[in-house]
Amino acid sequence: MTERGSISARNKFPAGQKGAALLIFLMLIVVSVAGFLLSGMSRNSHQLASPFHNTRILAEAKNALVAYARLSDPDLSADTGLNYRYLPCPDQDGDGLEETPCGTSSAAGWLPWMSLGLAPLRDASGTCLLYFVGAAYKQGTATAPLISALPNAEFNINNASAVISSDVAAVLIAPGNNVAGQSRSVAPGTATECGSSSVASDKNQVSNYLETTAGINNATAPEFVSIPISQNNLSGFNDILLGLLSNEL
Fold first, then answer.
1. For labeling, which of 9, 62, 139, 168 is most exposed (least CB within 10 Å)?
2. Is the pTM for the entire model greater than 0.85?
3. CA 56/CA 62 separation, integer angstroms
């Protein structure tokens, strides 16, 4: 064998190994970049999915309230149709059951999911839904026939500059994560499914879940404010609202 042939034979495998190592290195780069892109897509998908989740569970809660109101008619077989419909009182301690009686004015608290025959409904942050009901439309103060004889509902839903929905009998809210200044401690009670066994605890106060924007505080009826999802959480506001109009009952 000539000296040139001997050198070629000695270099054959090292060159191949170098090529294989380069190929493996390039494959690792491709996999790493793909993983990074996919993780970003996953995060974006989660961010996009969150508002859709909120929209879905708010609609589910609204449908349950409508069904509750229609089943509250004491004489479903009457030829005159639905003479007396009302909505449930809110749940005050987060155990899923409405608290009755709930006074003669509008009332606020947790959605009484168990009284509605639902599982606990939670928004994308894991927080249970909040519920406001107008005085004339809740159990104990509703007047028959609800669909024709009652005055307009007292709640209004606004955008940043004007009323967008009036004659709102009830408002459902996905409150989202707590923002600065909000405390959600269960003390001095113990945790329930959604709140605290102590009605007076921070955990059960709607003011620790709802925010103010455009001069309207969602924790204080009768005015509520809703802004586009794309603008939510940009300035410490993350409430997602859905109204139930009186003519939907």
1. 9
2. no
3. 10
